[in-house]
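note to self — DONT lose this again. spent like an hour looking for the file last time. sequence + predicted structure for the chain T wanted, 319 res
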Amino acid sequence: MVVSVFKFYLEVRDLAVVLYTVYLDQVFFGNFIMNYIILWAAARIIRTPAGKGRLVAGSAMGAVYSLALFTPVNIFMSVWCKIIASLMITAVTFAPLQPKKFLACLGSFYLCSFALGGLIFGMIYFIQPAQIAGLNSSGWADSENFWPGLVLGIVSFGAACKSIAVLMHKRIFENSFKTVILIKLQGVQVQVDAIFDTGNQLIDPMTKQAVIVVEYRVLKPLLPAELQVYYEGPEEPDVWRILSTMGESQWRSRFGVVPFSSLGCAEGLMVGFRPDEVVINRHEHQIRVSRVVIAIHQKRIDPADSYHALMHPQLLNIS
């Protein structure tokens, strides 16, 4: 909660009285905007839903509290009163919650408050240091550069929150959805870094089994030489030619066609095969799957090269 950005007060300097003017509408709307941004960011960081109506209510409560600091009642400036106000704002915005989750929201609320308040103060000082005449317990005294500082502070805060969210999402994504699988075929096995991809809804039309899409380069040790030839070149492999080339070999019964659709390719085809077994390492235990199809993808799946296979989400439900 950012409370009262400006406060009317007198300061004696070298026997001169310095008078600061406060504009209550500016205090209210400035605090309302900041409180809304803070509560919105806190909700995103802690991944707790908060509707626009609740965000508005919590922001308005914080803005009203900032006005209360201009009254002669000193209790509003006390630490305990500020804590109670913070609890009330958090409750209005996020409740009802379990105690642990509520405390997490409160902590995120304070963290965002301190971050945004510091950014706004820093931006105002950056614009014109001489304009900041002094500080008191409720904020800083500078009305001229408040709105430019507010805008710059919010932009910086938004960029920082977005970066943090991306990093957190990446870490959560890696911990929750990344896995390592072993694909076994004819006594040979390869280890593959994979992710569970909700966008992969491929089902083999013949067997009705879930499909795992895997890069050719990691599957190469498993595949017969007559098939590898078609994937070594830069052009897209001809699926039907590959299958016809295999003829009556021992591999033919294992291989088939997996149709797919994606952006830029409404009706695509991949060669797929049935492995002897796929072992999924999940949360320190192994899941063994035999009824699954591996689709061979010629190109790199992840530009960052952090995973090489897309798991069907159905495989998450296998225990």
